[in-house]
Design a protein that fits this description.
- It is a single chain.
- This protein is α/β, with parallel strands linked by helices.
- It has 9 helices and 8 strands.
- It has helices spanning 25-31, 36-57, 63-77, 84-93, 103-109, 123-132, 155-158, 160-165, 179-188; strands spanning 9-12, 19-20, 98-99, 114-119, 141-144, 172-176, 191-195, 211-213.
- The strands form 2 sheets. It has a 6-stranded parallel sheet, with helices on both faces. It has a two-stranded antiparallel ribbon with strand order 2-3.
- Helix 6 links the parallel strand 4 and strand 5 (141-144).
- Helix 2 crosses helix 3 (63-77).
- The longest helix has 22 residues, at 36-57.
- The protein is globular, with a radius of gyration of 18 Å.
């Protein structure tokens, strides 16, 4: 059995992996008391669905527009009156999503690798989100699907990683909490790490991650630091 080459770069999904998409629940509840959790869940589910449908139809649209369209649908489906000002506040909240508790410490511990984000987010959304969380210096690259005008899990998206990082794909670890994203990256040939915080079962998609961990900080046991 041949040994795998050491990991030289780690690429992270953004939404749901580094940044908690459901940290908008507090604002959702403020605007629509008692409906926050359901609105957030429906919004996120429809957001993902729209990215997949847009990709299949060959009708790429900026992630901000997709996210707003998903929000409009979520409000309609829950019979919530969401005037433009409320919608603007909710969209702004997406630029201030909170990181998961262990993120900053984990990134610091993994900083001997090249670190990057590969996300469905538009360049402007990602730049603001990273900046607002004080993580600008943590990443070598922040890569958006906007460069190829199609959403994950298209292989065209994952192919951006070796190109942008100047690292062989066999030496790249891809990190996501979304199993469909893990499947896409695995299919392309990246070494995948599934962040399974909730202990969910794997989807039946005929693929599995290189390994699964419950927290980002657990990655340090799989990514050696040559300086130590």
């Amino acid at each position: 059995m041949s040994r795998k080459p050491p990991i030289k770069a780690l690429v992270f999904d953004a939404y749901g992996t580094l940044f908690d998409v459901h940290s908008v629940i507090a604002l959702c509840d403020e605007l629509f008391p008692g409906q926050g959790a359901q609105l957030s869940q429906t919004w996120r589910a429809k957001q993902l669905e729209y990215t997949w449908l847009k990709s299949l139809m060959g009708r790429y649209q900026d992630f901000g527009k997709v996210t707003e369209a998903a929000l409009k649908f979520a409000c309609k489906s829950l019979k919530l009156d969401c005037p433009p000002e409320s919608r603007k506040r909710l969209m702004q909240a997406y630029l201030h999503l909170e990181t998961y508790p262990e993120v900053k410490e984990a990134l610091a511990a993994l900083s001997h690798c090249k670190l990057a984000i590969l996300s469905n987010g538009s360049p402007g959304m990602l730049k603001a989100l990273v900046r607002n969380n004080g993580l600008t210096k943590a990443f070598d690259k922040v890569i958006s699907v906007d460069e190829v005008k199609i959403y994950k899990p298209s292989p065209k998206v994952y192919a951006l990683t070796p190109k942008k990082l100047k690292v062989k794909k066999s030496e790249i670890g891809f990190v996501s909490s979304n199993f469909w994203d893990i499947c896409g990256a695995s299919s392309f040939g990246l070494r995948t790490f599934w962040i399974n915080r909730a202990g969910n079962p794997a989807d039946e998609l005929g693929s599995k991650p290189y390994t699964a961990v419950s927290r980002l900080s657990d990655l340090t046991q799989f990514v050696s630091n040559p300086a130590k």
